């Protein structure tokens, strides 16, 4: 749009220069035609009345005597320094002698550029007697054996003023036309791109989870694109659904054989049974981890999915309070309403649930969960942060680094597979987020889970 407007302005400017140039050329041609007419009148007025004189001049050039021309029908040739001048010069070998000149010159010579030796006509601009610019025309004529140069000149001040006035009018006219043209371009492009803007906003709503599909009520040129986008979104959801089903079936298929091996190893004695128990436990850990990774990758960033954070975290907090009621854990919850996670609700539930369960296992008496917004920088991505901390023994810096590694259990006396924090870290990374562990003010562990936030506007 800006390029089109720029080229339109350039084209109008070039057109303006061309128009002014053509006008000036037309004026110069008009000057030359007028000057040529005066030169011809000058020649006719200077010739003697007796035709025989000219005829006899061919045999005896000295007999021909040109007479002084009159005012040529133009009174300004008689007014002193009027800007209208003429002169008649006789060419004598390498010099020219002025025979007659207009009264307007007041005795001063009319100094003009020399005409070429082989040229019959010359015209152009030069400085006149009063230092004003004049347009001149010089013509060489031969009368018998003698050559003469007849010159006429007219001052150009009025002509220059006309050219500048014309240029000013052209500039004003083209300025108005340019403003109108640029405005029309901006209006046309803005009006023409409105459907694309609507499509972009509709697709953004789907990506942010505010609607299920793209609005198909578009102009006929864009309607097929909207239909194809909706088909792509639907296909994406079907692929995710099939992947989840496949992962679930695989989990059930592996769970039974591993459970049988584990039970058989527990009921048997001897080094072989112990070895089988160790390996089946490792198998269960590995299978669980890779199944979780496969499930996470299958549902990563499903288009148009978002969920409310506050109801989900509040439900998890109530559930953990009941599970750990016998230990007297005081679990506080603080989350703003309207904040939404840009992703699957079950993923958020798994991440927060793992962190909350881990905090309750290690806490002495207090666990706190807080959800807060993170301001986006400029037009960057929106984020939310879930902070869970406890008053347990906490971890050292080295233990914090080890805790997020797959299958790493820092205390074998506490039940679990050691996959909780690893799963949280992997799942958060799939959404572009992260989980960080640090020392809490209560003395225990603080886990900060950063995740993408959806637009908080109401679903349409």
What do you see in this structure?
The structure is a single chain. The protein has 460 residues and is of the alpha+beta class. The protein folds into three domains: 2-161, Beta-Lactamase (2-Layer Sandwich), CATH 3.30.450; 208-304; 306-460, Heat Shock Protein 90 (2-Layer Sandwich). Helices cover 49% and strands 18% of the residues. The protein has nine helices and twelve strands. Helix 1 runs antiparallel to helix 3 (157-207). Mean pLDDT is 80; it is low at 52-63 and 409-418. It is found in: Membrane.
Can you tell me the CATH class of the largest domain?
A: Alpha Beta
Shape field = rod-shaped
Whole-number total of structural domains: 3
Helix content bin: 40-55%
Number of helices: 9
Kindly report the CATH topology of the largest domain.
Beta-Lactamase
Structural Rg: 50 Å
What fraction of residues sit in β-strands? 15-25%
Sheet/helix structural class: alpha+beta
Strand order of the largest sheet: 2-1-5-4-3
**Biggest sheet features:** 5 strands, antiparallel
Sequence of secondary-structure elements: HHEEEEEHHHEHEEHEEHHEE
Corresponding CATH architecture of the largest domain: 2-Layer Sandwich
């Amino acid at each position: 749009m800006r390029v089109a407007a720029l080229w339109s302005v350039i084209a109008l400017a070039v057109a303006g220069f061309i128009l002014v140039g053509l006008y000036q050329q037309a004026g110069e041609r008009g000057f030359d035609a007028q000057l040529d007419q005066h030169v011809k009148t000058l020649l006719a007025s200077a010739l003697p009345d007796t035709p025989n004189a000219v005829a006899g001049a061919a045999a005896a050039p000295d007999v021909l005597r040109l007479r002084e021309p009159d005012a040529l029908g133009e009174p300004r040739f008689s007014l002193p320094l009027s800007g209208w001048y003429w002169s008649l010069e006789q060419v004598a070998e390498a010099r020219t002698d002025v025979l007659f000149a207009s009264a307007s010159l007041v005795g001063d010579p009319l100094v003009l550029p020399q005409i070429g030796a082989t040229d019959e006509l010359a015209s152009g601009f030069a400085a006149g007697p009063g230092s004003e610019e004049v347009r001149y025309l010089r013509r060489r004529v031969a009368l018998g054996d003698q050559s003469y140069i007849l010159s006429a000149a007219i001052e150009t001040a009025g002509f220059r003023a006309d050219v500048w006035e014309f240029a000013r009018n052209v500039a004003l006219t083209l300025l108005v036309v340019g403003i109108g043209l640029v405005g029309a371009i901006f209006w046309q492009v803005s009006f023409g791109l409105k459907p694309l803007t609507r499509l972009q906003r509709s697709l953004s709503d789907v990506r942010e989870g505010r609607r299920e599909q793209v609005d198909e009520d578009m102009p006929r040129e864009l309607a097929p694109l909207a239909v194809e986008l909706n088909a792509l979104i639907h296909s994406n959801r079907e692929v995710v659904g099939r992947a989840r089903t496949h992962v679930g079936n695989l989990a059930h298929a592996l769970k039974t054989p591993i459970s049988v091996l584990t039970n058989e190893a527990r009921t048997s004695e001897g080094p072989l049974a112990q070895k089988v128990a160790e390996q089946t436990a490792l198998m269960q850990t590995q299978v669980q981890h890779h199944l979780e990774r496969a499930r996470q990758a299958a549902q990563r960033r499903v288009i148009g999915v978002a969920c409310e954070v506050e109801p989900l975290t509040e439900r998890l907090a109530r559930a953990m309070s009941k599970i750990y009621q016998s230990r007297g854990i005081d679990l506080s919850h603080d989350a703003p309403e309207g904040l939404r996670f840009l992703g699957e609700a079950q993923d958020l539930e798994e991440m927060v649930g793992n962190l909350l369960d881990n905090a309750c296992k290690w806490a002495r008496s207090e666990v706190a969960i807080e959800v807060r917004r993170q301001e986006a920088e400029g037009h960057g991505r929106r984020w939310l942060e879930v902070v869970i901390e406890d008053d347990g023994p906490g971890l050292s810096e080295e233990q914090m680094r080890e805790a997020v590694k797959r299958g790493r259990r820092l205390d074998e006396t506490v039940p679990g597979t050691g996959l909780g924090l690893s799963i949280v870290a992997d799942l958060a990374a799939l959404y572009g987020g992260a989980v960080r562990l640090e020392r809490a003010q209560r003395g225990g562990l603080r886990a900060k889970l950063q995740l993408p936030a959806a637009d908080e506007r109401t679903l349409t």
